[in-house]
Protein backbone atom coordinates (compact mmCIF):
# COMPACT_ATOMS: atom_id res chain seq x y z
CA UNK A 1 0.00 0.00 0.00
CA UNK A 2 1.31 3.46 -0.91
CA UNK A 3 1.56 6.32 1.57
CA UNK A 4 -1.51 7.89 -0.08
CA UNK A 5 -3.45 4.64 0.29
CA UNK A 6 -2.44 4.34 3.95
CA UNK A 7 -3.51 7.92 4.64
CA UNK A 8 -6.84 7.35 2.88
CA UNK A 9 -7.52 4.22 4.97
CA UNK A 10 -6.67 6.05 8.20
CA UNK A 11 -8.85 9.00 7.22
CA UNK A 12 -11.74 6.61 6.63
CA UNK A 13 -11.19 5.02 10.07
CA UNK A 14 -11.26 8.49 11.63
CA UNK A 15 -14.59 9.25 9.94
CA UNK A 16 -16.03 5.91 11.04
CA UNK A 17 -14.87 6.58 14.62
CA UNK A 18 -16.71 9.90 14.57
CA UNK A 19 -19.86 8.20 13.30
CA UNK A 20 -19.59 5.43 15.91
CA UNK A 21 -19.14 7.97 18.69
CA UNK A 22 -22.13 9.98 17.50
CA UNK A 23 -24.31 6.86 17.26
CA UNK A 24 -23.31 5.68 20.73
CA UNK A 25 -24.18 9.12 22.08
CA UNK A 26 -27.54 8.97 20.32
CA UNK A 27 -28.18 5.52 21.78
CA UNK A 28 -27.34 6.77 25.27
CA UNK A 29 -29.79 9.63 24.84
CA UNK A 30 -32.54 7.20 23.83
CA UNK A 31 -31.76 5.03 26.86
CA UNK A 32 -32.27 8.09 29.07
CA UNK A 33 -35.56 8.86 27.29
CA UNK A 34 -36.79 5.29 27.87
CA UNK A 35 -35.88 5.60 31.55
CA UNK A 36 -37.94 8.82 31.82
CA UNK A 37 -40.91 7.19 30.07
CA UNK A 38 -40.76 4.22 32.45
CA UNK A 39 -40.57 6.59 35.43
CA UNK A 40 -43.70 8.40 34.19
CA UNK A 41 -45.54 5.09 33.80
CA UNK A 42 -44.42 3.62 37.12
CA UNK A 43 -44.49 6.88 39.04
CA UNK A 44 -40.86 6.57 40.13
CA UNK A 45 -37.42 5.83 38.74
CA UNK A 46 -36.46 2.20 39.00
CA UNK A 47 -34.15 -0.53 37.79
CA UNK A 48 -33.96 -0.20 34.00
CA UNK A 49 -32.16 -3.50 33.55
CA UNK A 50 -34.38 -6.10 31.87
CA UNK A 51 -32.77 -9.55 31.55
CA UNK A 52 -35.04 -10.72 28.72
CA UNK A 53 -34.55 -7.55 26.68
CA UNK A 54 -30.77 -7.63 27.20
CA UNK A 55 -30.57 -11.25 26.04
CA UNK A 56 -32.67 -10.58 22.94
CA UNK A 57 -30.48 -7.60 21.94
CA UNK A 58 -27.24 -9.53 22.41
CA UNK A 59 -28.51 -12.55 20.48
CA UNK A 60 -29.44 -10.23 17.61
CA UNK A 61 -25.92 -8.76 17.74
CA UNK A 62 -24.39 -12.22 17.36
CA UNK A 63 -26.85 -13.24 14.63
CA UNK A 64 -26.07 -10.29 12.35
CA UNK A 65 -22.31 -10.44 12.86
CA UNK A 66 -20.43 -11.05 9.61
CA UNK A 67 -16.88 -10.74 10.96
CA UNK A 68 -13.99 -10.32 10.94
CA UNK A 69 -14.56 -9.92 14.71
CA UNK A 70 -15.87 -13.02 16.48
CA UNK A 71 -19.42 -13.25 17.82
CA UNK A 72 -18.00 -13.25 21.35
CA UNK A 73 -16.08 -10.05 20.69
CA UNK A 74 -18.96 -8.09 19.17
CA UNK A 75 -21.31 -9.25 21.96
CA UNK A 76 -18.77 -8.10 24.57
CA UNK A 77 -18.43 -4.69 22.90
CA UNK A 78 -22.21 -4.20 22.72
CA UNK A 79 -22.59 -5.37 26.31
CA UNK A 80 -20.22 -2.58 27.43
CA UNK A 81 -22.18 0.01 25.43
CA UNK A 82 -25.43 -1.17 26.99
CA UNK A 83 -23.87 -1.23 30.45
CA UNK A 84 -22.63 2.35 30.11
CA UNK A 85 -26.04 3.54 28.87
CA UNK A 86 -27.86 1.92 31.80
CA UNK A 87 -25.39 3.43 34.25
CA UNK A 88 -26.35 6.96 33.16
CA UNK A 89 -29.39 6.66 35.43
CA UNK A 90 -27.95 4.70 38.33
CA UNK A 91 -25.26 1.98 38.18
CA UNK A 92 -26.55 -1.45 39.10
CA UNK A 93 -25.21 -2.84 42.36
CA UNK A 94 -24.25 -6.50 41.88
CA UNK A 95 -23.07 -8.70 44.76
CA UNK A 96 -20.63 -11.51 44.03
CA UNK A 97 -18.36 -14.01 45.77
CA UNK A 98 -15.22 -12.04 46.55
CA UNK A 99 -12.64 -10.82 47.07
CA UNK A 100 -11.72 -8.97 43.90
CA UNK A 101 -10.04 -11.03 41.22
CA UNK A 102 -12.33 -14.09 41.44
CA UNK A 103 -13.96 -15.85 38.51
CA UNK A 104 -17.32 -14.79 39.91
CA UNK A 105 -16.31 -11.16 39.45
CA UNK A 106 -15.36 -11.98 35.86
CA UNK A 107 -18.83 -13.51 35.42
CA UNK A 108 -20.40 -10.28 36.73
CA UNK A 109 -18.57 -8.21 34.13
CA UNK A 110 -19.31 -10.67 31.34
CA UNK A 111 -23.04 -10.54 32.07
CA UNK A 112 -23.53 -6.91 33.14
CA UNK A 113 -20.54 -5.07 31.67
CA UNK A 114 -18.03 -2.99 33.61
CA UNK A 115 -20.34 -0.01 34.32
CA UNK A 116 -21.87 -1.69 37.37
CA UNK A 117 -20.89 -1.42 41.01
CA UNK A 118 -19.56 -4.90 41.79
CA UNK A 119 -19.72 -5.66 45.52
CA UNK A 120 -17.48 -8.48 46.81
CA UNK A 121 -18.85 -10.58 49.68
CA UNK A 122 -17.19 -13.30 51.69
CA UNK A 123 -19.77 -16.09 51.34
CA UNK A 124 -22.58 -17.28 49.07
CA UNK A 125 -25.24 -16.92 51.77
CA UNK A 126 -24.27 -13.26 52.20
CA UNK A 127 -24.97 -12.67 48.49
CA UNK A 128 -28.48 -14.08 48.88
CA UNK A 129 -29.12 -11.91 51.97
CA UNK A 130 -27.89 -8.69 50.34
CA UNK A 131 -30.17 -9.12 47.31
CA UNK A 132 -33.14 -10.23 49.42
CA UNK A 133 -32.72 -7.15 51.63
CA UNK A 134 -32.53 -4.82 48.62
CA UNK A 135 -28.96 -3.77 49.41
CA UNK A 136 -27.89 -5.13 46.01
CA UNK A 137 -29.91 -5.18 42.79
CA UNK A 138 -28.61 -8.57 41.70
CA UNK A 139 -26.29 -11.31 42.86
CA UNK A 140 -24.03 -13.68 40.92
CA UNK A 141 -23.15 -17.10 42.37
CA UNK A 142 -21.36 -20.17 40.96
CA UNK A 143 -23.59 -23.21 40.56
CA UNK A 144 -21.61 -25.87 38.69
CA UNK A 145 -18.33 -26.64 36.96
CA UNK A 146 -17.99 -28.85 33.90
CA UNK A 147 -15.36 -31.06 35.56
CA UNK A 148 -16.03 -30.83 39.31
CA UNK A 149 -19.84 -30.72 39.37
CA UNK A 150 -22.23 -28.65 41.46
CA UNK A 151 -21.55 -25.96 44.04
CA UNK A 152 -23.57 -27.38 46.91
CA UNK A 153 -23.70 -24.13 48.93
CA UNK A 154 -25.58 -22.40 46.11
CA UNK A 155 -28.14 -25.22 45.76
CA UNK A 156 -28.72 -25.30 49.50
CA UNK A 157 -29.33 -21.54 49.63
CA UNK A 158 -31.90 -21.75 46.82
CA UNK A 159 -34.12 -24.00 48.97
CA UNK A 160 -35.28 -21.29 51.37
CA UNK A 161 -34.59 -18.15 49.36
CA UNK A 162 -37.28 -15.78 48.07
CA UNK A 163 -35.08 -14.79 45.14
CA UNK A 164 -35.56 -15.89 41.54
CA UNK A 165 -32.96 -17.00 39.03
CA UNK A 166 -33.08 -14.28 36.35
CA UNK A 167 -30.10 -15.26 34.20
CA UNK A 168 -27.09 -17.49 33.75
CA UNK A 169 -23.47 -16.99 32.72
CA UNK A 170 -21.13 -19.57 31.22
CA UNK A 171 -17.47 -18.68 31.75
CA UNK A 172 -14.50 -20.51 30.27
CA UNK A 173 -12.09 -20.96 33.18
CA UNK A 174 -8.34 -20.89 32.64
CA UNK A 175 -6.22 -21.42 35.73
CA UNK A 176 -2.76 -19.90 36.05
CA UNK A 177 -0.07 -20.48 38.66
CA UNK A 178 0.73 -17.04 40.08
CA UNK A 179 3.87 -16.40 42.09
CA UNK A 180 6.87 -14.15 42.58
CA UNK A 181 9.01 -17.30 42.49
CA UNK A 182 11.37 -17.37 39.52
CA UNK A 183 11.09 -21.12 39.04
CA UNK A 184 8.80 -24.00 40.03
CA UNK A 185 11.56 -25.40 42.24
CA UNK A 186 11.14 -22.39 44.56
CA UNK A 187 7.44 -23.03 45.20
CA UNK A 188 6.81 -24.67 48.57
CA UNK A 189 3.05 -24.06 48.94
CA UNK A 190 0.12 -23.78 46.51
CA UNK A 191 -3.04 -21.97 47.64
CA UNK A 192 -6.42 -21.88 45.89
CA UNK A 193 -10.11 -22.69 46.13
CA UNK A 194 -10.75 -26.41 46.64
CA UNK A 195 -12.42 -26.76 43.23
CA UNK A 196 -9.51 -25.07 41.46
CA UNK A 197 -7.04 -27.38 43.20
CA UNK A 198 -9.15 -30.32 42.03
CA UNK A 199 -9.34 -28.97 38.47
CA UNK A 200 -5.52 -28.79 38.34
CA UNK A 201 -4.82 -32.02 40.23
CA UNK A 202 -3.03 -33.86 37.40
CA UNK A 203 -0.81 -30.88 36.60
CA UNK A 204 0.07 -30.43 40.27
CA UNK A 205 0.79 -34.13 40.68
CA UNK A 206 3.15 -34.03 37.71
CA UNK A 207 4.88 -30.67 38.28
CA UNK A 208 4.68 -30.10 42.06
CA UNK A 209 4.05 -33.55 43.57
CA UNK A 210 5.53 -32.86 47.02
CA UNK A 211 4.34 -29.27 47.46
CA UNK A 212 1.71 -28.57 50.14
CA UNK A 213 -1.73 -27.61 48.83
CA UNK A 214 -3.98 -25.32 50.86
CA UNK A 215 -7.67 -24.73 50.15
CA UNK A 216 -9.12 -21.26 50.87
CA UNK A 217 -12.46 -19.53 50.28
CA UNK A 218 -11.68 -18.18 46.80
CA UNK A 219 -8.98 -17.82 44.16
CA UNK A 220 -8.90 -14.07 44.74
CA UNK A 221 -8.21 -14.66 48.43
CA UNK A 222 -5.45 -17.09 47.47
CA UNK A 223 -3.75 -14.48 45.29
CA UNK A 224 -4.04 -11.87 48.02
CA UNK A 225 -2.50 -14.26 50.56
CA UNK A 226 0.60 -15.18 48.53
CA UNK A 227 1.46 -11.82 46.96
CA UNK A 228 4.10 -11.19 49.65
CA UNK A 229 5.35 -14.79 49.88
CA UNK A 230 8.00 -15.58 47.25
CA UNK A 231 7.91 -19.29 48.11
CA UNK A 232 4.12 -19.56 47.72
CA UNK A 233 1.92 -19.69 44.63
CA UNK A 234 -1.78 -19.21 43.97
CA UNK A 235 -4.00 -20.81 41.35
CA UNK A 236 -6.20 -18.06 39.97
CA UNK A 237 -7.21 -16.19 36.83
CA UNK A 238 -5.60 -13.41 34.84
CA UNK A 239 -7.68 -10.76 36.63
CA UNK A 240 -6.17 -11.79 39.98
CA UNK A 241 -2.70 -11.68 38.44
CA UNK A 242 -3.25 -8.07 37.34
CA UNK A 243 -5.03 -6.96 40.51
CA UNK A 244 -2.46 -8.32 42.95
CA UNK A 245 0.55 -7.79 40.65
CA UNK A 246 1.46 -11.46 40.72
CA UNK A 247 3.36 -12.75 37.67
CA UNK A 248 2.00 -15.79 35.83
CA UNK A 249 4.59 -18.47 36.49
CA UNK A 250 2.72 -21.12 34.45
CA UNK A 251 -0.36 -20.47 32.29
CA UNK A 252 -3.41 -22.65 31.58
CA UNK A 253 -2.64 -25.41 34.08
CA UNK A 254 -6.20 -26.79 34.24
CA UNK A 255 -6.45 -30.52 33.46
CA UNK A 256 -9.41 -30.07 31.10
CA UNK A 257 -8.95 -27.47 28.33
CA UNK A 258 -12.74 -26.97 28.02
CA UNK A 259 -13.15 -26.23 31.73
CA UNK A 260 -16.29 -24.08 32.14
CA UNK A 261 -18.13 -22.76 35.17
CA UNK A 262 -21.82 -21.86 35.14
CA UNK A 263 -23.07 -18.99 37.28
CA UNK A 264 -26.61 -17.96 38.22
CA UNK A 265 -27.86 -14.37 38.31
CA UNK A 266 -30.24 -13.80 41.23
CA UNK A 267 -32.89 -11.09 41.38
CA UNK A 268 -36.24 -10.21 42.89
CA UNK A 269 -38.39 -10.19 39.75
CA UNK A 270 -39.77 -12.66 37.21
CA UNK A 271 -38.45 -12.60 33.65
CA UNK A 272 -40.65 -12.86 30.52
CA UNK A 273 -39.98 -15.47 27.85
CA UNK A 274 -37.41 -14.84 25.11
CA UNK A 275 -37.75 -18.05 23.08
CA UNK A 276 -34.41 -19.39 24.35
CA UNK A 277 -35.00 -19.98 28.03
CA UNK A 278 -34.39 -22.33 30.92
CA UNK A 279 -36.61 -23.11 33.90
CA UNK A 280 -35.16 -24.37 37.17
CA UNK A 281 -37.30 -26.14 39.74
CA UNK A 282 -36.79 -27.70 43.18
CA UNK A 283 -38.69 -30.91 43.87
CA UNK A 284 -39.12 -33.06 46.97
CA UNK A 285 -40.61 -36.51 46.44
CA UNK A 286 -42.46 -39.07 48.54
CA UNK A 287 -40.21 -41.95 49.54
CA UNK A 288 -41.99 -44.65 47.54
CA UNK A 289 -40.75 -47.13 44.88
CA UNK A 290 -40.70 -45.73 41.35
CA UNK A 291 -41.15 -42.11 42.42
CA UNK A 292 -38.08 -40.79 40.59
CA UNK A 293 -39.29 -42.37 37.35
CA UNK A 294 -42.74 -40.86 37.84
CA UNK A 295 -41.08 -37.52 38.49
CA UNK A 296 -39.16 -37.54 35.20
CA UNK A 297 -41.74 -39.19 32.95
CA UNK A 298 -43.88 -36.04 32.28
CA UNK A 299 -40.95 -34.25 30.61
CA UNK A 300 -40.16 -37.23 28.40
CA UNK A 301 -43.83 -37.57 27.41
CA UNK A 302 -44.01 -33.88 26.44
CA UNK A 303 -40.65 -33.81 24.65
CA UNK A 304 -39.24 -31.26 27.09
CA UNK A 305 -35.50 -31.70 27.60
CA UNK A 306 -34.20 -32.03 31.15
CA UNK A 307 -30.72 -30.57 30.87
CA UNK A 308 -29.70 -31.21 34.47
CA UNK A 309 -30.88 -33.04 37.58
CA UNK A 310 -29.01 -32.91 40.88
CA UNK A 311 -29.88 -34.26 44.31
CA UNK A 312 -29.02 -32.76 47.69
CA UNK A 313 -29.88 -34.02 51.19
CA UNK A 314 -33.04 -32.26 52.34
CA UNK A 315 -31.92 -32.18 56.01
CA UNK A 316 -35.49 -33.09 56.99
CA UNK A 317 -34.59 -36.68 57.80
CA UNK A 318 -31.95 -39.25 56.88
CA UNK A 319 -31.87 -40.35 53.23
CA UNK A 320 -34.41 -37.71 52.19
CA UNK A 321 -33.45 -35.59 49.17
CA UNK A 322 -34.30 -32.47 47.22
CA UNK A 323 -33.95 -32.64 43.43
CA UNK A 324 -32.85 -29.62 41.41
CA UNK A 325 -34.02 -29.87 37.81
CA UNK A 326 -33.35 -27.65 34.77
CA UNK A 327 -35.91 -27.85 31.97
CA UNK A 328 -35.47 -26.23 28.57
CA UNK A 329 -38.19 -23.63 28.01
CA UNK A 330 -40.10 -21.00 29.98
CA UNK A 331 -42.82 -21.56 32.55
CA UNK A 332 -45.10 -19.31 30.46
CA UNK A 333 -45.04 -21.91 27.65
CA UNK A 334 -47.97 -24.32 27.81
CA UNK A 335 -45.87 -27.46 27.35
CA UNK A 336 -43.48 -26.48 30.15
CA UNK A 337 -46.33 -25.45 32.45
CA UNK A 338 -48.08 -28.76 31.84
CA UNK A 339 -44.91 -30.71 32.66
CA UNK A 340 -44.44 -28.77 35.89
CA UNK A 341 -48.09 -29.31 36.86
CA UNK A 342 -47.75 -33.07 36.32
CA UNK A 343 -44.54 -33.20 38.34
CA UNK A 344 -46.15 -31.19 41.14
CA UNK A 345 -49.05 -33.63 41.27
CA UNK A 346 -46.59 -36.46 42.03
CA UNK A 347 -44.22 -34.50 44.29
CA UNK A 348 -44.36 -33.78 47.99
CA UNK A 349 -43.24 -30.23 47.24
CA UNK A 350 -42.30 -28.21 44.15
CA UNK A 351 -40.79 -24.74 43.94
CA UNK A 352 -40.11 -22.83 40.72
CA UNK A 353 -36.67 -21.25 41.15
CA UNK A 354 -36.97 -19.14 38.01
CA UNK A 355 -37.41 -19.01 34.25
CA UNK A 356 -34.64 -17.04 32.58
CA UNK A 357 -32.76 -16.49 29.29
CA UNK A 358 -30.09 -19.02 28.45
CA UNK A 359 -26.53 -17.69 28.51
CA UNK A 360 -25.58 -15.66 25.41
CA UNK A 361 -22.24 -17.22 24.31
TrEMBL record:
One of its GO terms (molecular function) is prephenate dehydratase activity. The keyword Transmembrane helix does not apply. It holds the Pfam family CM_2. It comes from the Bacteria. InterPro entries: ACT-like_dom_sf, ACT_dom, Chor_mutase/pphenate_deHydtase, Chorismate_II_sf, CM_dom_sf, CM_II_prokaryot, G/b/e-P-prot_chorismate_mutase, Preph_deHydtase. The keyword Amino-acid biosynthesis applies. Residues 1-93 form the Chorismate mutase domain. CDD domains: ACT_CM-PDT, PBP2_PDT_1. SMART domains: CM_2. Pathway: Amino-acid biosynthesis; L-phenylalanine biosynthesis; phenylpyruvate from prephenate: step 1/1; Metabolic intermediate biosynthesis; prephenate biosynthesis; prephenate from chorismate: step 1/1. Its EC number is 4.2.1.51, 5.4.99.5. Residues 280-357 form the ACT domain. Residues 6-40 form a coiled coil. Keywords: Amino-acid biosynthesis, Aromatic amino acid biosynthesis, Coiled coil, Cytoplasm, Isomerase, Lyase, Multifunctional enzyme, Phenylalanine biosynthesis. It catalyses: chorismate = prephenate; prephenate + H(+) = 3-phenylpyruvate + CO2 + H2O. PROSITE patterns: ACT, CHORISMATE_MUT_2, PREPHENATE_DEHYDR_1, PREPHENATE_DEHYDR_2, PREPHENATE_DEHYDR_3. It is found in: Cytoplasm. Residues 93-268 form the Prephenate dehydratase domain. Catalyzes the Claisen rearrangement of chorismate to prephenate and the decarboxylation/dehydration of prephenate to phenylpyruvate. This is Bifunctional chorismate mutase/prephenate dehydratase.
Amino acid sequence: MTDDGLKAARDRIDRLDEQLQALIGERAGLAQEIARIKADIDGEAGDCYRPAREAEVLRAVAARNRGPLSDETVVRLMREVMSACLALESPLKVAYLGPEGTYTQAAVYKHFGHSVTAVPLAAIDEIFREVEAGNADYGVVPVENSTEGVVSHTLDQLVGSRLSIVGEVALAVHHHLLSHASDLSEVKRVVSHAQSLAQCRKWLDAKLPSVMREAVASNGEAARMVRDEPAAAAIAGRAASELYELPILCANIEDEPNNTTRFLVLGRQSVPATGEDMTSILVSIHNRPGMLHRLLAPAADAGVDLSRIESRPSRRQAWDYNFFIDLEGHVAEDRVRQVIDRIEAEAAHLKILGSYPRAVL
